[in-house]
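Sequence, structure tokens quoted for completeness.
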Amino acid sequence: MKNTSVSALSAAGMMLLSMSGATHSATGDDELWSELKGGGKVVLMRHAPVERGADRGNPLVRDPSCKGERNLSSQGELDAEEVGRRFREHGVPVKEVLHSPFCRTTETAKRAFGTATAAEYLSLLEILSTDEAAQQTERLNRTIGSYAGEGNLILVTHEPNINSVSFETVRHLDFVVLDPAGETEFDELGVIRFAGPE
């Protein structure tokens, strides 16, 4: 696996990938929660806040032991549990939860939703070569566009991955609500911000 940064992707190429699946419509939080309660949507969520500082792990390192990675902070752990509580409070049916194999996304998914499964195509784009990043983004577009479950599909991943397919800028635990439209196509209904409006 090459360690080429996703920034090496051409601006035109990333824009094409980003715009290939999504169309955008702005919707308020109440409407978005209502859409999620009806099921059949895909949630693309950024992981919870992580520990900061030079001795707090490397954000680009993937380490199954979690010792070399940058992991969730104590507040991040609490925030992940809170976002799960909000889903339950709003009566949102969850069909499946998938997450990047990194420790911070794994812990976010499990603290928020309990049961969750690792998916390689949600792994951090910044550790991939240009070709690998493009293939992974294509897989993400297809997963979103082709989803047809009755409940909602939750995808917990990283900021660059969300930026590759969405119009929205996301902070920790913000999530984009997407409405599948078949194959690699989907409508972007809006974003629910964990901490409220900026």
Q: What stands out?
A: The chain has one domain: 6-192. Residues 1-19 have pLDDT under 50 and may be disordered. The first helix runs from residue 11 to 21. Helices lie at 11-21, 29-37, 74-89, 103-113, 130-146, 159-163.
